[in-house]
Specification:
The chain is an alpha+beta fold and 191 residues long. It is built from 7 helices and 5 strands, in the order H-E-E-E-H-H-H-E-H-H-E-H. It has a 3-stranded antiparallel β-sheet with strand order 1-2-3, with helices on both faces. It has a two-stranded parallel sheet with strand order 4-5. Helix 5 packs across helix 6 (133-141). The protein is globular.
């Protein structure tokens, strides 16, 4: 499916969520008429835990077959997590529930290409205040769209992994970076 078909369509979209398999485990996404409203990386305890997390995050949404636009997003996320170099920037996100400040941070993070990283401080500097590093880290920890908003590519000072709120924590973050071929500080692959 090409990029345009992932972000534009004449289909009527009923909100819902779906689970899908990836190279790192069962992921999920939720959609609405204006784009994706959430993406979920795998929970440590497998598919049932990922489904339960989606039901907690989106209690009003039914589990359903994804519409064409969501199918395109699924295919792109699966490709990224297999090592394909797709920045997912053409996937439409509905950020209606996201603060303007976090939207600014997520827009910067979405410009980080696969295989590259930036630090919380570098993103804070781009926002105009290096003192916002902690706020950038908090925004990454609350990212509702990982890996479409690639918080795994944002590192702590000294290119250290920092935290990661997805199942598996920092180890999952490092695994995702390894799949992309990123080598912060020239570190060797852990996998």
């Amino acid at each position: 499916m090409n990029a345009a078909s992932r972000s534009t369509s004449s289909e009527t979209i009923e909100p819902g969520f779906a689970l899908f398999e990836t190279a790192i485990g069962t992921c999920a996404l939720a959609w609405g008429p204006r784009g994706l409203v959430g993406v979920q990386l795998p929970e440590e305890n497998g598919e049932a835990a990922t489904r339960a997390r989606m039901r907690r995050r989106f209690p009003a949404l039914p589990e359903a077959d994804p519409p064409e636009s969501a199918q395109g997003a699924i295919a792109a996320i699966q490709g990224l997590l297999r090592g394909e170099s797709d920045d997912l920037s053409d996937i439409v996100l509905d950020m209606g529930a996201v603060s303007e400040f976090h939207q600014r941070i997520y827009a910067i993070a979405r410009r980080i290409p696969p295989g590259q990283t930036r630090t919380y401080g570098e993103i804070a500097a781009e926002l105009g205040d290096k003192g916002l590093s902690r706020a950038v880290g908090q925004a990454m920890g609350h990212n509702p769209f990982a890996p479409v908003v690639p918080c795994h590519r944002v590192l702590a000072a000294g290119n250290k992994p920092g935290g990661f709120s997805a199942g598996g924590g920092a180890l999952t973050k490092l695994r995702m970076l390894d799949i992309e071929g990123a080598r912060p500080n020239g570190m060797a692959s852990l996998f």
